[in-house]
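This section describes the prediction task in plain terms. A model, or a person checking by hand, is given the sequence of a single protein chain and must write out its three-dimensional structure as a string of tokens. No templates, partner chains or ligands are provided. The sample shown here is typical of the held-out split.
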Amino acid sequence: MPARFFATVQTRALAAGAAALMVAGCTEMPDLGPQADYYSTRTQARIYVLDNGDFEVVPPIGAEGAAYWCAASDYARLRLQADYAQDLYVVKGRAPSTVTGRIDTITFSLNGVPRAEEPPFIRRSYSFKPGDSFSVSAAESFCRDLQPYLLF
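The expected answer:
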């Protein structure tokens, strides 16, 4: 019986030593880059803050136009404490992301952006040209257009 006891103690000591070495090797966290710093909205979009204060909306793949405005209003209201009457402006329309490399992102700002072209007589709500804008309240109304995500 004593031999079995010592074998068990040696096995546990080896396991504890191996665990300690693994933890010691993991104490220094690697730099994950700017992709690690994002805000996740209720529609599962990611918001990345850019250096100049603008923010980039990266919705789930295949998201419709309402998802961009909904995510932008969510971030503006909850993180930037913007008033419902504050306007959200498109800085850069659908283009490759400067942070993640995704090809379908839009950059927004709370600061006024000059229009790239005159708005048409009939306005398309999902137009993403520089200078297009909605109030935070109007952009938030697009959240109702989205189908809920069912997670099981």
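For orientation: Residues 2-25 form the longest helix (24 residues).
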